[in-house]
Write a structure and sequence with these properties.
The protein is of the alpha/beta class. It is about 50% helix and about 15% strand. The protein contains 16 helices and 12 strands. Helix 1 packs antiparallel against helix 2. Keywords: 2Fe-2S, FAD, Flavoprotein, Iron, Iron-sulfur, Membrane, Metal-binding, Oxidoreductase, Transmembrane, Transmembrane helix.
């Protein structure tokens, strides 16, 4: 194992000689923000989640009121079928809100957590709607002389909207199947996403079925108006967050590539500029979905973090070659038009709870950490985990920033086993780690190991900030 302590706070009490000292203090240009220290009151993440759950619970209560007002069927199975159908559909609308990428929720909760919640809500929708179909079918079969299969056929032939509901359920089953982990690992993101788009067809079919056949809505014009408002609001959120806002921002800023700089054989930095970037609400630590509008890549979006704090003039992303999309970046030409969706992510100083921080990066996960270091105020300790010194991307920039800000940098190198960031090692590198905010970004195995170390050390959960960059959860 090699742990290189490169820079310390330059005060007389703590200064030491670096193995590779910098003779002159570098110039660090960032978009300055007010100092950020301990944030009193309720944490932004708690506010964001409370807002989501309040929306869901309030609508669940309204649905219950309308359901009771419509009256109960004599058959308990039909009652259960109607109730599971209502709440399954309500969760479908809630799912749309989760993936609408509304900035207020995204900055407080993060796309990764919203996507994960969307995933598990989707499975809940699937089971509720399956239960709805089974309860309704068996409930009506109990009241007739038909077996369940013939009863379902009869309902499809004689009841308005039931055939649409069957098609919607079939679509949801297919989408649920391809979203299971075993299937998701085997599908390209673009394939999975294309299949997932059929969910919107299911949404329309399910809504029209409910307002046409649902007793809760056929018996009350107020309930039907309310239900239309719920679904209209959910679809409007998706339309605004995923289409209108990205289009407006790209028309306004007109992003273009200004430089492509190889950092090493596998890593490249791309500089992007545009009009009026000072009004783009991007923060250090956030990421964009980047589409470089070349003839062979315009259709492909990739999530890359900003590797430098936004300064109102230029955005920079730094990516490691890990697939066709990232490998093609070094061949971009200056002047290439860019369609950028974002900024996204909650990996920012908005969530700070302590004046001082620890930034832990692994591999190319250093990119948002390097950007955050520019924006952070207070004392910072940076721990950068790589296999070899040659793998330390942007290491020179980190060293300059650390010296300029009076921070510490620890370069930790060596093979993954034994764990170089085990609890004892972290406590040795940062003795007061439990009193600091911890920002973590790196490969999933490394992040999981470090999160375990932080739990073992007793670092309070609100002080630990991380984000998993996965579009499909």
């Amino acid at each position: 194992m090699k742990v290189e302590r490169q820079y310390f706070d330059s005060s007389p009490a703590t200064s030491s000689v670096s193995q590779d000292p910098i003779k002159e203090l570098p110039t660090v240009t960032t978009l300055q923000r007010p100092p950020t220290g301990t944030r009193p009151g309720v944490r932004p993440g708690v506010v964001g989640r409370a807002g989501l759950y309040a929306v869901l619970l309030a609508n669940a209560a309204v649905v219950a009121v309308f359901f009771v007002q419509a009256g109960f069927a004599s058959n308990a199975l039909i009652v259960l079928g109607r109730l599971t159908g209502l709440y399954g559909a309500l969760l479908m609308a809630f799912q749309l809100l989760l993936v609408a990428r509304l900035p207020w929720f995204d900055r407080r909760i993060g796309m990764d957590r919203l996507t994960l919640l969307h995933r598990w809500t989707g499975f809940s929708v699937l089971w509720l709607l399956l239960a709805h179909a089974v309860f309704i079918t068996f409930g009506y079969a109990r009241s007739s002389a038909l077996d369940p299969v013939n009863q379902l056929v009869d309902l499809a032939e004689t009841t308005e909207g039931v055939l649409r509901a069957i098609v919607a359920l079939a679509v949801i089953i297919v989408v649920g199947a391809v979203s299971a982990r075993w299937a998701r690992r085997r599908l390209a993101y673009e394939t999975w996403h294309f299949i997932h788009l059929y969910t919107y067809v299911a949404v329309v079919l399910a809504f029209t079925h409910q307002v046409a056949a649902g007793t809760t809505f056929t018996s009350s014009s107020v309930a039907k108006t309310y239900w239309s408002a719920v679904w209209g609001g959910a679809l409007a959120a998706v339309f605004a967050g995923r289409l209108v806002l990205p289009l407006w921002r790209n028309l306004r800023h007109r992003f273009r590539v200004t430089a492509v700089v190889p950092e090493n054989d596998d890593v490249v930095s791309v500089y992007v500029t545009g009009r009026d970037l000072g009004r783009l609400p991007a923060r250090a630590g956030q990421f964009f979905l980047w589409r470089f509008l070349t003839k062979d890549r315009w259709w492909q979006a990739n999530p890359f973090s900003l590797s430098a704090a936004p300064d109102g003039r230029t955005l920079r992303l730094t990516a490691k070659r890990a697939g066709d999309g990232s490998a093609a970046l070094r061949h971009l030409k200056v002047g290439t038009r860019v369609f950028a969706e974002g900024p996204y992510g909650a990996f920012t100083t908005l969530h700070r709870t302590r004046p001082d921080a620890v930034l832990i990066a692994g591999g190319v996960g250093v990119t948002p950490v390097r950007a955050l270091l520019e924006e952070l105020h207070g004392h910072a300790v940076v721990i950068y985990r790589v296999a070899t010194d040659q793998d330390a991307v942007l290491h020179g920039e980190l060293r300059e920033l650390v010296l300029a800000k009076g921070a510490e940098l620890h370069l930790v190198t060596g093979p993954p086993v034994p764990d170089r960031l085990a609890p004892g090692e972290l406590a040795r590198l940062v003795p007061d780690i439990t009193g600091r905010d911890v920002y973590l970004c790196g490969p999933p195995p490394m992040m999981n190991a470090v999160l375990g170390s932080l739990r073992e050390l007793g670092v309070p959960k609100p002080q630990v900030h991380f984000e998993r960059f996965s579009l499909a959860g």
